[in-house]
Amino acid sequence: MKSYILGDSIALFGRHMTHLRRTPQKILHVTLMPIMFVILFGYLFGSSMSVPDGDYHEYIMAGIFIQIMLASVVTTGVGVAEDLKNGLVDRFRSMPMAQVSVLLGRTIADVLLNATSCIAMASVGLLIGWRTHTNVFKLLEGFLLIFLLGFVMTWLGSLIGLIVREPQGVNAVAMFVTMPSSFLSATFYPLDNLPGWLQTIAQWNPMTTMATGLRELWGNPTANGTDLAFPLRYPVASSLIMLGLLLVVLIPLTTRAYDRAARKG
Question: What is d(CA 257, CA 97) in angstroms, rounded to the nearest whole number?
């Protein structure tokens, strides 16, 4: 059964890759938007933002990586909704294949797109002054954590797409979920820049924990102060636990939602 699912997932992954080669504008979208984020925050905000004991160009990169991974919710959700709308899911359901492979093929393909975005962002980040100050293993650990976040977000996007079923509606719901997660956190600015009550929200925001974990792994400034919430004291471990729990919840929920959506046609 496992080899059956794996084979079907690889086949559907190949289908998504073929589709990407035929629509190069999607690749341009996932590379140009991250570059614009790096330039916007690195140059425009970087000239007016200060980070205690560090450089804002190094501080901001973790936040931009997270922002792009959160955008996977929209990308994947819209793609799933479009597949439902054009009848592709109906055709898949009529085939002798493991239905979970449909979701696995798409989510893995979207994670590969995320990796392309990360390469573009890292390249431009190096040009504007981003540097890592730890060893290569810590560097890779940081990127693996980022890809895991992207993988989780693709499952969340799939779930939203299967529930909402309309591409425009998916975009609105996904933005409602992701925007507070990124901007009510310490992804783009130090906690001290926020009012007292927002600092409390930001400290317990999982994206602040993620950003802090990445900054620690890469040796970049965290700028969180000293009186920290529990997750921020162990940011890498807390992030892994959080993402693992989300996967445990999201995968069965999304699989059931797919089964219901496919039966409705």
Answer: 17
